[in-house]
Structures
1.
Amino acid sequence: MPISDEVCFFESIGRKDLAVFGGKNASLGEMVQTLAEVGIAVPPGFATTADAYRRFLAENALDQVISETLAALETNKTTLKAAGEKIRTAIVAGDWPKETEGAIREAYRILSERAQHDNVAVAVRSSATAEDLPNASFAGQQETFLNIAGEDALLTACKKCYASLFTDRAITYRKLMGFDHQMVALSVGVQQMVRSDLGGSGVMFSIDTETGFDKVVLINAAWGLGENVVQGAVTPDEIQVFKPFLDRQGLRPIIEKKLGAKEIKMIYASGEGPRQVRNVPTSKAERARFVLSDDEALQLAHQAIVIEKHYGVPMDMEWAKDGETGKLFIVQARPETVESQRKSGTFKRYDIESHGATLVSGLAVGEQVASGPVCLIETPDEMDRFIDGAVLVTSATDPDWLPLMKRASAIVTDHGGRTSHAAIVSRELGVPALVGCGNATELLHDQQEITVSCAEGDVGYVYEGRSEVSVEEIDLTEVPATRTKVMLNLANPATAARWWRLPADGVGLARMEFVVANTVRVHPEALLHFDELRDEAVRAEINTLTRGYEVKADYFVDSLSLGLARIAAVAHPHPMILRMSDFKTNEYADLLGGAQFEPEEDNPMIGWRGASRYYDPAYEDGFRLECRAVRKLREVIGFDNVMVMIPFCRTPEEADRVLDVMQQEGLQRGAKGLQIYVMCEIPANVILAEEFAKRFDGFSIGSNDLTQLTLGVDRDSDKLAPLFDERNPAVEWMIRTVVQKAHDAGAKVSLCGQAPSNYPSFARVLVDAGIDSISVVPDSFLQVKKHVAASESK
C-alpha cells in the first residue's frame, strides 16, 4: 500500500523495484507479495524510496558537502575518518522535508494499528540501491537500529540510516567494489520487531558457504537479537540440513549439529535513554542447549528451499524466532555472493607438506593457506600500525574492520561463526579466516610468524612458523567417461564436502572408525557401562561430551550417524559403502574409556578385530550401537544409498553370526534395499569366495591387508618394505581369482585399497581382471580415471 510517492508498505514492493527501494527492501517486499501464501512469514513494515533520500540531501544542500568531502579524501587532503564523520554529522543535522516526514509518521501509525500496539517497536534497516547484488553483498555496510519506538525516535533513526551510507567501512567497501559513492542511494526499511530477544535468531544459507556444496542448508543460531551472529560477536550453533530429503515423508535429514558457545545475547534495554538494546551474558543452561529444536531447523531449511527456488539462485537469509509466540520469521533474504559465482570447471587444492606446532584452531572460512607475521589489534582505531600482508588477529571482526581485512593475508578471531559478516566479507576478498577460536588473542603475539590453514576441512589451524605449502589447480573439464566405476575413499566428515565437484561414482570406502575416533571419541562400552568406569578424569570428560543425553549410549548413535551423514550426502544419489568399525584393540583402547575394555595383544593386526568382535559378548552390545547408527542414517536421516561392509571376516560361519546380530538390529540384507558387502583382505576370502558370495552382495578388496597376508609381510616393517607390493604376481592372482569367482556367483567386486592411489597404472591390472569399481583417495581420482579410460580403450 503506497502512503505517498516516497513511502510504501512491503506488500506494494517487489524485486523489480531494486533501483527504488534497494536490494534488501525489494527482497522483503517480494517475499511478502509472493511467498506468504506458501508459508514464508516476513514481519510487516514499510520502506522509503531512494528519491526520498535524494530529496533529503537536496533540501539540506548536502550533495555539495558530500562531493567536496569525498574529493578531498581522494586527493589525500583529509582522512577517511574525518571525511566520514563530517558527512554523517551533516546528514543527522538535516531537517526532513515536510511531505517525507508526514508520510513516515502516517505509515508508522498504520503499522502500529495493524500490530494493535501503540508505538510498536520496529527495526530500522538501511537498504542501499547497490547492495544484495549477485556479485557483492554489501552485508553490514550500513547501520541497523533495533527496538525503535515512537515517531520522533523513528525519524531520528531514519536519518542515522542515511548517515550510515558514509561510515568508514561503507566508503571503503564501495571503493573496493568499484561503485560510485554518489550513484548509490538509500532506502530505509521499517519492520515490526520480532521478539527474538526472548527467543533466538541467526543466519541461513541455501548452500555450503565453504565448499559451494549445493545440497545443504547451513543454519547458524544464537540467543537474542540477530546482530551478534551477523557481526560475529558470538560463536553460534551450526546445523546442516540435506535439501533433497526435506520433502520426503517421515525423514529428518539433519546431517550436522554443532553446539556453539553463544557467549552473549542481545536483548531490549530497559528504561529511558539512547540505547534501545544491550548485550548480556548467556546462562550456563543457554550455552549448553541448542537454540533451535530439530523440527524448527527443518522448518527453516524448508523455507530456505522455497526462497531459493523463487529467486533461482543460492540465498543468504536472516531469520528470527519470536520468544512469545514461537513463530519463525524471515527478516532478510539476498543472493549468496561468493560460492555461487565460482567457476565449476576448476578448483584449487592446498596441501601443507610440513608445518610447525599447532597453536590455535577454529572454524575455517575459505579453503586456502596463508603465512605471515601476527598483527594483534583490539580496535580499528589501531589500524595505522597494521602491516600489509600480516595476519590480523583480534577478538571479533565487524564491518568497521574492512580496511584492515583487505590488507591482511589471513584473519584469526576469538569469536564468530561461519555466517558472520566478517566471514562473508573475507570470502568475497578471498582472504582465509579462522573464526570462533576462543583464545587466539591470548595465545598469539605480535610479530610471531604463523601459518593459517583453512585447507583441512571445517576446522582450521594456526601453525607455528611458515609452512611448506603446495597448490594444485584441478581441472574437471576433461574427465573421461569409463565403464569401470571410479569411486572415492573418504573418512573425514569435515573434509568430505570439499570433493563434491569430482564426478565420482560414489564413495567406495567410508571408514566408520575414523568418525568414531574423531567425532564420537568415546568407546561404546564406556557409554554402555559408564557406572563401571574407574578413571574419574575419563568419567568427567565423557559427562561433558554427553551433556543433554539421559541415555549416554544415544550420544554414540546420534554422533556417529551425523558424522556418517556428511559423507553420505556427498555420495548421494550414488552409493556409499560403509565399512563397520575396523579398529585394532590398541586403537580401541585409545578411545575415551577404551583401555578398561580392551585386551592387550602381541599382534593386534591379526588379532581381535573386525567381524570377530561383532558377535563376541565382550563387544556385541557395542556393535549393536553401530548398527543402530547405520539404521538411523538410512531410515531416519534418509540415506538409503548407504551399503554396509563387514571387515576382516575370517570364515563363512563367522559371517552368519554377524549377519544374525545385524538382522536383530533391523539391518537385514535385501530389506529396504540394503546391500551388505564383505572385505576381501584374507586369503580365505578368495579361497572360499563361493561361500562368502552366498552371504554377501559383493566383495571389496582391501589390497593392503590382502598383500600383507598373502606375502606374509608386516606392512609397517621398515626392513620388509621392499617386499610389500600390491603388484606382486601372487596378489594379482588373488585379485583376478576373487573377481572371477564373485562374478560367477552374481556378486560385484570393488577394490578400495591404496594400490591404485599409489600406482595409478595398477588400474590396468584391475580393468583387465574385470573389476566393477575402483575406489581411490580424492587426490588420485583424476589420474586413476584417465588410466582406467586408457586401459578400457585397449
Note: The two ends are 71 Å apart (CA to CA).
2.
Amino acid sequence: MSSDEKPPAPRSLAEALRARDDASLAVLLRSRPDLITPVPTDLTQLATRAGTRASVVRALERLNRFALQTAEALAVAGDPATYDELLGLLAGDAGDPAVAAALPHALGTLREQALVWGDDDRLRLVRTARELLAPSAQHPSPTGLGPTVREATAGMSPGRIQEIVTTAGLPSTHDSVSAVAALTALFTDRKRMAALLDEAPADSLDVLDRLVWGPPYGQVTADPAARLRWLLDRGLLLPTAPGTVVLPREAALHLRAGRAHRSPEPVPPPVEAAAAHRPQMVDSTAAGQAYTALATVEELLKDWDEGGPNVLRAGGLSVRDLKRTAVALDVSEPVAAFWVELAYAAGLLASDGDADERYAATPEYDDWLERPAADRWAQLAQAWLAATRTPGLVGGRDAKERALSALGPGLDRSAAPEVRHRVLTLLAGLPQGAAPSAESLRARMRWERPLRGPQREDDLRGRLAGWTLAEAELLGVTGRGALSAHGRALLGLPPAPAPAEEPEPVGPGDKLPVHRHHRPAGGPETAVPAAPEPLSPAERAAAAATAARVLAPLLPEPLDHVLLQADLTAVAPGPLRRPLAALLGVLADVESKGGATVYRFTPASVRRALDAGRTAADLHAFLAEHSRTPVPQPLAYLIDDVARRHGHLRVGAASAYVRCDDDALLNEILADRRSAGLGLRRLAPTVLAAQADPSTLLEGLRAMGYAPAAESAEGDVLITRADAHRTGPRAAPEPVPEGPPAPDATLLSAAIRAIRAGDLASTAPRKPSTSASAPADGELPRTSSAETLATMQAAVLTGEALWIGYVNAEGAASQRVIAPIRVEGGFVTAYDHTADEVRTYPLHRVTGVAELADDQP
C-alpha cells in the first residue's frame, strides 16, 4: 500500500481500537476506568466490554449536554451515518454556526470514549448506545422522534400500504418494500413534502404541530375525525397498535426543518456573577469564617469530651441529640449536621466501640489541637473536599423511606467530591472577588452532566452544587460567595493575577459582566475542555500546605491576656492561646461569643476548676498573670469562698457515704428536705451513708449549694478532668468512589502493554493447518499432548515462535506467543512475547500449539 492510499475503514469497534495509538487508548481507559477492571486480555475483549450495557450507560451519563445530543442524533440517523447527515440533524436545514463549530469536539469526545467509531463517511454509534437512545414503543427517544416509515409499517398489510402510497399522490408499486421506499423518499424530499402539506386542512396541521416535538404517539377512535383521516390516508400518521398512531420520523424531521432537537445546546451556559467585591475583602471574610469554623469544631468536641451522645442501634445520631447539638453550637440543625459530619470526615470524631456505644473525640483530635490554626483548617478543608458523605441529606429519606440521620448510614454520594471540586473550579474561573449566581451555576452543572430519563434523586447534582456553595462559605473556602485566595490554593490552582483595577462593590440590581469559562486563547468560544484531572494524594498534600501558608497571615494572632471586670466577667478581645483558653474554659462559663468572647465566673465554674486539681492560690496567680486589668475584689472573694468550702465534705463508695469533721454541717444536711431522695442516714457523728451512688450523691449535694469533693478508697481527693474520654485509634472514613477508581500512569502503561501483547497473540497469523480440528478465529488451539510436546521440542531446535492456548490455575484461558527455550520435566521454559519476559509453563495446562506464519516473531 502506498503512502497516499487510505487505510481500510474499520469493520468493527475492535478494529477501530486496534488502529489507535497507546496515547489514545490511555485516554479511553482513563475516561472509562471500568474497562480496565480487570485488565482485558486483548482488544477484542476490550471492545466487547466497552459495548456492555452497564459500561455504556455509565459513559453516557458522564457526557455533557451537546455530546449527548450528538449521540442522540446519531441514534436516529442512518447506520452508518455521514458527518454531513449528523450536522444536518443538529444544525437543521438553515444551519447553525455554533453547532458547526462545536460538533468536531463533541464527535471527538464520543470517539475518544469508544461510543462512536468509523470515519466521517461511515460513523457508527455502538449498538448498545443506539438501543438506549433510539426510539421505540417502550422507550421513547430523548429527541421526541418516533420510528421510521419502514419500522412503523412493518406489520401493515400490503394493500393498506398501496392505498397510502396512492392517496399521497405516488404511483402504485408491485411490492411493499418499494412502496415504503417511495413513501420515505416523499417525506424526505423537502419540496414534494412541502407541496403535500400545503394541501392539508388547517386542523390536520394543528394535529401535527402537537406531535412534532414529541411524544410522537397519539390516540384515535375506531372512526377518526376528518382531520385525522386525512393524515392517516397519506401516511403522515401510521398505526402502531389498536387505537394508537405515530408520526413517522421522516415527516417529523421535515416539520422540524431537519433538526433532531428543539434546542441544540452547543455552547455551555455561562456562570454569571451576582455580586463583586474587593479581593482583599473576600480573603479577610473567608479567613474570619475559617477561624470560626475551627472554633466551632473545637466547641463541638469539647462538649463531647466526657462522652457524646449514644449511637443509635441503626447507627448515627438521634434527632433529639442533633437538636441538642444545634442548641449548644447556636446554629440550625442542618448546619449542626454539617459540623458533626465534617469532624467525622476529618477523623476527629468516632464511636468509642464500648458496650454502651457513644460518640467521642479520637486521639487524632488531641494531635490536631496542637497544630497551627492554618494547618488545622487545611485538614478540615481537605477532608470536606474529598468526602462522599453528604450532610445535606440529613433529615431526608432513603429509597426504602428510612430516615437519614447525621453520622448514620446512607449519606454517601459518590458524586459529591467531583461536584464540589467542579463548583469551586467554576468559581475560580470568575473574575477575582466575583460571587456567582446560584441559578446560572446550577444551569452550567446541568449542561455538563445532564440527567437522562427520570430525574434520579430530584437532580442530586444540582442540590449538591447548592450545598457546596453554602458549606464552602461556612468553612471559609469562600468569602461573600467568592472564592478566596486560600480556596484557590486548596484546589492546586495558581494564584489569580492581580486585577488592573479593583472593582467597586456592586449591588444586586446592577448589571455585571458575563464570564465564560475556560475559553482557549484565540480558540472558538464553543470549545469545552475536559474537567481537570483529580489531584493525586501527594498533590493534595502539597495543595493543602500551600493553602495553609496563604491563610496563615490572614488569621488573627492568638492573645495571652483577658480583661477582668467587676461584674465577675472576663472579656477576651480576640482568640486566646490554647493553654489560656483551656484553663479559662474550665474556670469560667462562656456567656457570649463573637469578635470578643465574654466569660462569666460562677461558684459552679470555680468549683469545676478546683475539682480539676487547681488550688485557690493557683487561680489567683493565673488571673493576675493573664489579666490586663487588676483582679476585681468580688472575683477574689468568690474564689476564696468556694475554695474554703471545697472538699469540706467528702463523698466515697458505700453505696456512697459523706464524711465531714463538722457534725453540725451533717445535721444541717439531714434536716434539709431536699436530701430526702438521697437516702441519707448517720453511721457516726462525722459519717453519713447514702443509698444513691457517689456521682448521684455529688450532684445532689451540689444542687443543695454545697461543694463536696469525691475521694478514693484510700481517702485521697479524686481530681476530675474534662478531657478524660477518648475513643481508640480510629481512621477517617474512606470516601465511597463512583465506580472503579481512575487508573494512574503506571497502571495504564502496564495495562496497555498487556492488552497489546494479548492482542498480538490472538491475531498473529498462523500457518495453514490441515488438521480437521483447526481452531476458528478467537478460539484456543487444540492439539494432543504428544503433538504439543513434539512441536515444543522442534521449536527449541529451530528457534521458532509458537502460538499456544494456556489455562492458568484460576481457570482463565488466554492465548500467547512464545519462543521455547527448554522442555523438560513436564514444563516448557520460553520467552513469552505476550508478557515480554521469560516464563515457565506446565505442559498439562497448554491446550494446544500452532505454528506462526514465517513473517511473525
Note: Residues 453-457, 501-530 have pLDDT under 50 and may be disordered.
3.
Amino acid sequence: MPTRAASADPAAAPGMPGLDSAEVARLRAVHGPNAIPEARPPSVGVRVLRSLRDPLVLVLLAALVLTLVTTDLTDAAVIALVVVVNTTLAVRQEVNADRAVRALSSLVTPSATVTRDGREQTVSVRDLVPGDLVHLRQGDLVPADAVLVAGTGVTVGESMLTGESEPVGKAPAPPTGPRTTPDAQLDATVDPSVEAAALEAATLYAGTAVVRGRGTARVTATGSASATGRIAALMVGTQQRRTPLQLRMSRLSGHLAVAAVVLCSLVFALGLLRGEPVERMLLTGVSLIVAAVPESLPLVVTLSMALAARRMASRHAVVRNLAAVETLGSVTLLATDKTGTLTEGLMAVSSTWQPEGASPESLMRAVVLCNDVGDGVDGGLRHDPTESALLDTAGAAGVDTVGLRAAHRRLAEVPFDSRTKRMTTWHAVPQESPWASDAPDPQATGTDPLATGTSVQGPGSGVLVVSKGAPEVMLRPDVLDDPPELVAEALEQASTLAAAGERVLAVAIGRVGALPALAADVPRLHLTGLVALRDLPRAAAAEAVAACQRAGIEVGLVTGDHPATAWAVARAVNIPVGSGPVALHQVPEPQTPAGAPGVAEVSRHRVIARATPADKLELISAWQHAGHVVAMLGDGVNDAPALHRADIGVAMGRRGTEVAREAADVILTDDNLGTVVAAVEEGRRVYANIRRFLLYGISGGAAEILLMLAGPLVGVPLPLLPAQILWVNLVTHSFAGAALGAEALEDGAMTRGPRPPRQNALDGLWWRLGLLAAVVASAALAGAVVAGDHFGPSTALLALGVGQLCVALALRSRTARHLGRQRLVLPGALAAAGLLLVAAVTVPPLAQLLGAHLPPLSSWAWAAGSGLAAYVAARLVRPSSL
C-alpha cells in the first residue's frame, strides 16, 4: 500500500520531515549512543572477595589461619589449594554468567519508529539522537527524553520516575519558526514563552510508558543526559541482590558450618582425652571442618542457575531476572491472556451483517475511517491485528482506502480504551463524499477545522462521526438513534456470532454540523452493521496447555473479550470451562454492575472474561492468597500490571509491547506458549540438581566425621591424617559437585505436581544422607582396621574417596542419556577425581606430602568393594524425585 498522507493522521507532525542520515551521523558523534551507562564489571579482585564471603569458605579460611599458626605448612598448602580451586571455579563461572546475560540482553534490544530521510523507519533505540522525530503508540516505552509535538489522547505512566500510580495526560507543544539546522530545530521546538506548566505537559521522559493514545515527539536528550540516565548514574556500582534461592543456600551454609565446627570440636576433645597431642588433634579438627562443609555449594547454586538461563535462552526464553529460574519450578497456576498468546493474534474478518436496506459499502468505508492502522508498507506504522484485518477486508471489497482517508481528513478522535471498549473519530465531509448529500449544514463555515466548536469549511461540509466497539457498548439506546427492534435484532446477531467464538464489533455513523465542544461528546448514531472476526488458536497451544496440566500446573484464561469468545478459545485448547466462562463486567463501567460477580467470587474459575487490567491484578492477588505460585503470560500494555504483580511475569518477545517486556521476568522470543513449559522444566531441573548435590556433599562430609569419631572406638586412633582428609574433600567435592549441577531432569518430573514453594531444600533427605554416610564411613573404617597401622590411613583414604565418587554416580539423573555429549560430563569429572585420588598413593611427591603409602592389592580390592557398597546403597535410597 502507498504511504498514508500526513494530513490523514492528526498524531503525525505535519511539516516536520525529520532528520536526514548525515545529520543523524553528526549528532550521534556528538551525543553518543542512546544507552544508559552500565556499571563497570567488577574486577577480578572484587569477584574473589565476593566469593570468599560465603560462610563455608570463611570456615576454610579460619582453618587455614590455624594451620599457619601451628606451622603445619603441608596442611596449610592443601587447604589453600581447596580454597583456590573453588574460588577460581566460582569466579570463572561468574564471569561466564555476566557474559551470558549481556548476550541475552541483545536478544530483546528495543526499537523505535522514527521519521528520517522523509519516511518512517524502525531503528534500534540505541541509535536515536537529539532531534529525531519518534512516533509513539499505546504500549510503547518512551525511548528518550522528548517533547510531544503532535498527538491525540496521549497519556503516559510516570510511576517509574514519580511514584504516582495515575497516568499523566500530555498535550503537544506548539512548534515555532522554520527549521535551519538540527540543533536549531531542536531548540525551536518549544516557544520560550510557553509557561512551565505547558512545557511539562508536553515533556516525555525516557523509560515511561504510553498508556493511551498516540503521537509524535521530538527527542531532546538521550543516554546519560536523559532523566533515566541521570538516575541510572546513581546506581553505577550498585551490587545486584542475591536471589531467594541463593539466600536460602547461604543460610543453610551457615547452619552446616556451625554444625561442622561443633562436631569437629567434639573430635578434638575426645582426642585430647585419649592423650593425643594437642597440635595433632587441632590439625585433625581443622581438617574435619574443611571436610565436613560442602564448600562447593555456592558454586553449584551459581552454576546450576547460570546453565539453566543459557539453556532457556537456547529454548527461546530469555531470563531477565535470575530468581525466575528457580521460581519457575514452583509455579502452580499459569494465567494467560487470549489474543497473541493462546491465539495467533492475526485476525481475519469471517462475516458481516447489516440492517435491512443498509449498504455493505458503507460499512466497509466506515471501518476504513475509524481505523488506526497506517497505509504504509515501508516504514509504516506498526499494525494492530484487528485494525489490519478490517482495512484488508475493505481493500479486498474494492474500497480505495488511501483515497477515502485523504478525502475525509480526520479532525478529532477518542482512541480505543480497554475501559470504554470503543473508538470514535470525526472526519471532514467533502462535496464528493458518499455521505455529502445528507450533510446537516452545507453552508456552515469555519476558519479552523480543528478548533473546538467550529464546522468544516467548504461545499458539502459537515462532520462525519464514525464509532466502533464492543456490541454491549454500542448496541444501547443512549448510543444508537435506531428503532428498538433493530437494536434487538443486532444484539441477537451479535450473540449468535460471539457464541461461535467470533469477536464482534458494532459500527455506527452519524453527522453533525461542527466538532463538539468536548471530544467525548458523541452524538447518537445510526447502526451501519456488525463485523465478526476470528483469531484462530495457535497450533501448539493445546499441547502446551496439556503439558502444563500433566505437570500439575493449572491453566487459567483471563481476557477482556466477550465470554462466548473466551469459551470457544478455552474449549479449543482444552482449558476446563466447568459450567462456562465467568464475565466480571457485563458493561465496561468502573464499578462492577449489580448482579455481576466480584473478583474474589470468580477466582476459583479458570475462564474469566471481560476482565480489566485492575481485575487481573485482583485475580492474581486472590490466587496468591490461596497459596498459588502464579505465572502470568501476556503481551499487551493492559497486561503489564499483572505481569509485574505475578510471581513470574512472562511476556511475548515478538508481538509483545515494550511495556509488557519491561514488566516481565521472562521473555519468550518465539511467542510460543510451549516455551513456558520448557522454562518450568528448567526451573525444576535447577532445584533437583541442588538437592542432588546436597545429598551427595553432606553425606560425604558426614561420612568423614563418622569415620574420625568411630575410629578410636575400634582401636584406630586416627583413621586419616589431616592432609588426607583435605585431599579427599578436594577431589570429591570440586569436580563431582560442579558436574552434578548440570544433570538432566528426572523422568516423570514433569508429570508430577510442583514442589511446595516453602519446602526446605533438605526435606526428605535427612535419613538418606545419614544412611549413606554410615555405609561409606563403615567401609572405610573396616578397610583401615584390616590394613593395619601402616597401610590403614591409605586404605581408608581410597575407600572413602571411591565410596563418595560412587555415591555421585548412583545419584545422577536417570535421563542422563538425553543429555547428548553432556552425558559424559559427570563420568568425566568422576574419572578426573579418581585419577587424583589414585595419585595420592602412587605419585611419590604427592604421597609424601599427604603422608600416604602405596597399599597392597588387598587394599585396592577393599576400596572397590567400598565403592560397590556405596553405589548399591545410594541406588536403594535415592528418592524417586529430587
Note: The longest strand covers residues 145-157.
4.
Amino acid sequence: MFRSVKLFAALLKWPLRPLLKYKVVPEQPVSELQLDTSQPVFYICPTESGSDLAALQHVCKQLQLPDPASYVVLDGVKHFRTLFLEKPHSLVLKRGKTSAHQQALALLEAHLKNPTLNAQIIPVSILWGRAPGKENSIKWLLGEAHAPNWLAKLLIVLVSGRHSLVRFIPALSLQQMAAQFGADDDTSRKLLRMSRFHFYRQRLAANGPKLVNRSQLFNSLLAAPALKKAIAEEAKSKHISLVQAQKNAHKLLLEIAADYRSSTLRVADRVLNWLWNKLYTGIKVHNADVLRDLAQKGHEIVYVPCHRSHMDYLLLSYVIYQQGLVPPHIAAGINLNFWPAGTIFRRGGAFFIRRSFSGNKLYSAVFREYLCQLFIKGYSIKYYTEGGRSRTGRLLQPKTGMLAMTLQSMLRGIDRPVTIVPVYLGYEHVMEVNTYLSELQGSGKKKESVFGVIKAIRNLRDYGYGYVNFGQPLTLNDYLNQTVPNWKQDIHPIEVQKPQWLASVVDDISINVMQRINQAAALNSINLIALSLLATEKHTLTRQELEQQVDFYLQLQQQAPYHNQMTLPDANSSTLIEHAISLDKVQQQRDNFGELISLTDENAILMSYYRNNILHLFIMPSILANAILHQREVKRERLLHIVQQLYPLLKQEMFLQLDNVEDYCLQVLDHFVKANIIKQQGDQYLAPAQQSSHYFMLSLLADNAEHTLQRYAMLLQLILTQAPQNRADLEKQCHLLAQRLLQQHGITAPEYYDKQLFTTLINALRDNGYTKTDDQSRMLATDSLTELDQAIDSLLRNDVLLSIHSILPTSRS
C-alpha cells in the first residue's frame, strides 16, 4: 500500500507545486525540536494521502530532512519511513485500515531486540487551509473532514493549497518507548493513540473551535439566565417593556461582538506580510514555543500584552498566526470601531469594549456573558490590562475589569486550565510617539478616523525591528489552588459569582502579570542608545564613548541579568549604532578629532520614550552607581540599606520583581568590581577617579535614576514641609512643582507630565508605611519617611535639590 501512495505522490509532485504554499512550524525543526539527524528518522501522518506525502516530501527536502517516501534499514530489515494513521474516506467502498499498527509494532520489536538503536518518530500534521468550519454546517467538503475522499481532497487542495500549515511535533524516542513499555500490541496502539491525540490538539490549536452562527450565538446569549435577569431589571428600572429591553441588549451585542471570518484572516495574512516588510527591518519573536506547548496541552490561552501602539493589535495576532496557532479574539477600544477599520477588525476577531461600564448594568451583563461564552467555546482571548496606550514608555497601572471577568468566567466551570501569557511588545519606532508628549501636556487625544489611517499609510517607511517576547505564563487554576484552595466551591454554572476573595486576588494577579511583562523586555539599538545619550547634558557622545557605554550596558545584563526572560541584541555596539543612524534616530557628525553621535532637542524628548521601555532593567544598578558616586566611599551595608528603602517604591512604580534584592545588588556590584568600574576594599566600595573613563561610564548609568529620584524628593518634601493635604491636593501640588522644575532645569522627561506616576508613588508610600492618613484623609509623615528623605537627598544633584528646597518654603506663605 505504501508503494501505491508513493507512486501517487510522485505523479503529483509537479502538478502540486504551483498549488502549494505553506508555513512550517517551527521554522527550523531540526534545531528547535533538537532532532538528531544522525539517527534514523521516521514520520507519522494523520491520513494516507498522495498529496500529503508529496507536500511533505517538498518540505523535508527544503529543510534537509530525510525523504518521507524512502525506506529505513534497521538490522537488515527495510521499514517504510512514513506511517499513516488512517485511510481517506471512499466515494463508494468502505474505508479500510492502514498498516500503521503493524509498522509501529515492527519498529518497537526491532528496538527491543537491539537497544543500541535509537530511531525518532516525528508526528507531522499537514493542514490544507486554516478554516475552523462552522457548527451545524454542511460545508465539510472544503476542509472540515479530517480524512476526505479523493474528490473532496482535490477541491481542498485547489481552494486552500496556498494557505497550508505544516507542523512538526517533538519527536518520540522509539528506543525509550520500547524499553519503558515493551513491544506488544498495547504499546503499538498506545503510540498511535498518542499521535492521534497530538493531531487533534494540533488541529484545534491551529484552526480554533468551530465557529458559531452569529445570530444563533446572540439568541443563546439572550436566553442565558444571567442575561435574562439583567434584561428584566433593565425593563423595571427604565420603565420599558421587556421586548424593548431585549432589543436594547441585542443592540449592545451588535456593538460588542466579533464577526470572526477565516477569509479575513487569509487576506490579512498576505496584507500584513507586505506591511511588515514595508514597515520593519524584521520582527523578532522569542519564547513562542511556550505558546505551542500550552496549546498542545489544551490550555485556554489569555494573551495580556503591554500597549505601546495601535500596531499592537495587528502585530501580535499576526505573530500568533505565524506560529501555527489560531489568532485570539481581541478586546479593542470602542474608539477603533470606525468605518472601515471597525468592520475589518471585527471580522478579524476584535470585539469592542467601552472605556467604562459604570452606570450601565445591562451593558456590563451583556459584555460579561459574551466574554464567558468565548471562554466556554474555547476561543483564545487577548486584552490590554493597561486600558490604553502608554504615553511615557513605562507600563501603566493595570485596569482589572477584564481580568476580574476572566476569573468570573472560570467560576462558571470552564473544564480547561486557563493560562495568562504576558507579552512584551517593543519597537524601535512607535508611529504615534510624536503625539504622546502633547497628549500628556493636555492637548487631548485625537479621535481615530479613516483619514488618520490614510495619512499613516502615506508615511510608511523603515521603522527598524519589532519585538514580540512571550513572558512566563501564569496558569490561573494553579494560582488559585495555592492562594484560594477552596475556590472551586464558588463555581456556579449560571450565576455570576463575586466571592470575597475576588478583588484582592485580581489585584495580585494583575501586578504579577505586569511584572512578568517587564521581565521579558527586549534590549535593542534604540533603547540602549537612548539610555546612553539622554544621560549626557548635551545629549552627545563621541562614537568611542557611545560604543563603550552600550557595551557596558550589554555586559551588565549578561553578567548580572535582571531576569532570564529578557532578550539582548545579537549585534555588537558598533553595528547597533550604525542601525540607529540608518533609522535617523541619531545625528552623526565628523570633525578633525573624530566622530560625534548626538540627539536633536526634538529627538531627545522622543527618545526618552524608548529609554523608559527598559529603564526598569537598569534602575537598581543606577541607584547603586548614584550612591557610590555621591559618597565616594561607602560600605556594603549602607548601600544595601539604601536599596532596601527604595526598592518597595520602585517595585510598585516600575513593576519590579527580584527573587532576592540583596543577592541581585551584590551580583551587580561584583560585576562593577570585575569590570574595574569601581574598587573594593573589604566591605567598602570606592568610586573611580573623577577624570577616568570609568567614572564617566558610571555617572552615565547613575543619571538614569535622576528623574525618578527627583520626583520622589518633590513628593517627600511636600509631605514633610507643607501643611497636611489630602491625596488629590498633594497630587496637584506635585504636578505643579514638576512643571516648575521642567522649566528651571530644562528637564525633557515625559513622565513629569504624567499625573498617574505621582498617584502611584503616593499609594506606594502609604502601602509601605512611610505615610499615614488622619481622620480628615490627609497625608501625614511617619518616622521612616524622614530617613527615606535623607537617603534620597544623598543621591540627588545639588542644583536640583536646592531648587526643590527653595521653592517649597515660598509656597507655604
Note: The longest strand covers residues 418-427.
